[in-house]
Amino acid sequence: MPGKPFKEENRRKYQSVFSSFAKNTCYIAKHGLQPALFHYAFPMDTRIDIIAHSPAALAIRALEKSGYQAWIVGGWVRDTLMGRMPHDADIATNAPWEHTKRIMCGAGYAVHETGVKHGTVTAIVSGEPIEITTYRIEGPYSDSRHPDYVEFVDSIELDLARRDFTMNAIAFHPTRGIFDPFDGASDIEARTIRAVGDARKRFEEDPLRILRAARFEAQTGFEIEPATRDAAFSCAHLLDSVARERTGSELTKLLCGPYAGRVIENEFPIVVQAINELKVARGFKLKSKRHAYDLLGHLAHSVSAAPENEALRWAALLHDIAKPESNHDHAQRSSTTATRIMQRLRIGRQQTQQAADAIAWHTTSFPPSEEALRLFVACLGGDVPRARRALLLQRADASGHGPKGDAREKEVDEELAMLDALECSGKPLGAKQLALSGREVADLGNLHGSEIGRTLDALLAAVVEGEVENTPEALRSHLNFAIENAEEQIFQKKLRKFLTKR
After folding, report:
1. Using an 8 Å Cβ cutoff, are 423 and 374 in contact?
2. Among positive and negative, which fits the CA dihedral 489, 495, 498, 502?
3. What is the pTM of this model?
4. Whole-angstrom Cα distance, residue 390 to residue 456?
5. pLDDT band, very low/low/confident/very high, at 326 (cuts 50, 70, 90)
6. Domains and CATH numbers, the chain
7. How many secondary structure helices (H) and strands (E) does the chain include?
8. Distance between CA 197 and CA 138 in Å, rounded?
9. Separation of alpha carbons 181 and 163, rounded Å
């Protein structure tokens, strides 16, 4: 077979990685790890049993019985070599897809034609979907997304040569082991992201690969190899041709990576091409003396400090996006801008709404106090998860200030602990938790429409401030006073008044 096999010295290097998986025979049997690499962990009869129970190995065996080649390829191999838990195993074969379908059906497996234009069918083997694709090379990408045509070939090396990065261009066989013609395993050990062949050509074929390089860096902490980075930067303008939902999906994965903050700064020419509104962030000096970084550094450090949650990572990236326009009311302005950006990138509606909402409230801070916290939660309709998101963004924002944000971080930690306790306490945090329902309030006070909601809020405010107990009798007695003093945004006003007193 052409190309070079997995180097013997690399086999020794990665033996410990594979052996760590060997401790869980059920996991190995399920995912079909290469038994030769478990030579020191399992006796031969166990290795044979592993092959027999692996869905991917069963599919490979069926293809090979009919005279075809087959290898596991892609992310499964990469993740296993990295010591990460691999997921769905994809198979590459020299069998035409029609033959693959006939062979798999003949072996008793259901088969779906999921991408036959590109040679792909999905077989359900032992309950697991396995994508099986014919070896191929690809023509030009006129739409910067799909090749204009594919040509099916008979060489696994040619198939691997069309892939984006060397760490994704490694094949694995249950008995023959690793086939690594582009030395991807060495790049994995060196923690390097390197394009296969001509980096510029790879990026011109599919510009989304530019963002994928940054995304892999954010997820793994690997460094992009200099020539690959130079090509990515020079081709970054090609991202404009990529479908917005593809760009948005990659950005979300990037932002949720553990090294996302580093990538936002290091690979800024790529990120800013995808989100043009960030252009003014680099070098923009923040007025507050509490800030240790420029706006870009602040946003990047805030992202790093935020939980790895899609809505919160987006919120951390965009929470001060409108500051260069105006520091006044920048929370609301940034919320509006974030909504526009996320909608443009086709980010999910829920994530967009949650991110925009957290941004809108990220400047509403207060010293740890149960009364202030209950007023704050009431401002948010008694929605505890919503309040928690807002506080988590405030914490990330404080962390993004640098050392001078430490005090506020500690305050938010206290408030989050307090919020957890309040949630379990049974104390009313929203109007729905009052001992009088909206219908009862409407009937007793002869109220209609928005009058009902304002009155319920006035009753809740009285309960939160300790003026009235949350019992039906006490609330009925206080009802007329609540009707007379009901007003819009009562909790925001009371929270501001509370903070003024402090």
Report:
1. no
2. negative
3. 0.85
4. 24
5. confident
6. 8-190 (3.30.460.10), 307-429 (no CATH), 430-502 (no CATH)
7. 25, 11
8. 14
9. 12
